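Q: What structure does this chain adopt?
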Amino acid sequence: MKLANKPRLRSALRKLYAARIDWSDSYVRATAAQEAIDFVAMMAGIKPVYVTGRGFDHDGWRAAVLELAASNRLYVVPGPYWEAVRPSSDLPGWFVEAGRKGLDERRAHYIAKGRATADELKALAEGGRPDIAQEARLLGFPLCCVEAHYRAAAAFEGATYELLSRRAGGDEEEMKRLAEGPEPLRPETEEERVLLSTAVSVRPARYTSLNMCETCAADPDSPGVRLSATYGALAEALSGKRRRDRGGRRRG
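A:
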């Protein structure tokens, strides 16, 4: 892969690998390595927007990312979490609100190298919400995979509501109490685990933070697989060897 400024990208990787996080923790190490590739993909023009503060919300990592963005004169736009599609409207309003409790108040930092993209991010931060196509374009992900993400999210919401109803015996007041409790509702039986697990399938696109849709995962020449190959080539060009991280986390 030909890169316009390979030394600059390698320098960015080195600085991210020096972030003050617990590199001895296997999850933190693998997640940060994936996030680092996402960041340099944005710097290389492969990924339009990098998101920090959602998913891997670690203070040390966020500090390293924001410092690096400033030193490279990248555009940083704080804004609310993107949520292109809210839960299905056939779910009760109280359940939707309980599930989103605090979500609208949380903030992420959206980072881009181009002014036009930054202006688009500012417009979203000022009260807009991306549609699915816009979110896919800004993240540099295949539209089909982002659409699948939202279908899975809706399916999971529906399964959670069914689990809640079963747990409360259909009593709405008890359902509200459980939904608004401090602890997340977790499956307690095998039947409940199956109910939730069948709602979501994870198909990681290696080297990326993308979860592929079923069609992309099954087709060796799909947009998701091609994106994985592009990120793999980026990692190889910068490190001289292919990374073994699994990747596959979404979000932003």
